[in-house]
Amino acid sequence: MKTCHVCGFDCENDAENCTVCGAELKTFEAYEQELREREEQQAKKAAQEALIIKNPVLAATVDNVVAAEIYKDVLRDSNINFTCDENEDAMQIVFGGGFNAQKIYVNESDLEIAQQLYENVVNAQMDFEDDFDGFDDFEEFEEE
Asked: Rg for the chain (alpha carbons), in Å?
């Protein structure tokens, strides 16, 4: 006998619906499975929606390809979704050996944090370059 989870009536084992209240008769495991599947679908949908930048705004225009990659890594590490105006797998070299600037866009709600992160990247890069200023005067020693 199956017991109805709604009204508690004992129904026949082959019954699909309760004869008293009409509720669908399923095992507890079947309900748990449906609930898990529904939660997984909702989580998947939420994750897909989170990847969409609904109100893109320009966070930074980066001229240095290395700084641009570092900035994008910092955004990823901070769970800030972004997009840029060029393919991430391509490095475009323009005439004269320079690189095209990358425009990096974030969701409007993340703009303030993204701009602060960009300032941190720029300041860190400047500090790094300052550390090597003394190497310009370095002379190699010749072995005698």
From this structure: 30
| C-alpha–C-alpha distance, residues 22 and 133, integer Å | 82
Q: Which CATH class is domain 56-132?
A: alpha beta
Dist CA 112 CA 118 (whole Å) = 10
Taking 50 as the threshold, does the pLDDT of residue 60 lie above it?
yes
Paired residues of 5 in beta bridges:
none
116 φ, ψ to 5°? -65, -40
Tell me the average pLDDT across 71-83: 91
Q: Is the pLDDT of residue 90 over 60?
A: no
Sketch the domain layout of the chain as residue ranges.
2-50, 56-132
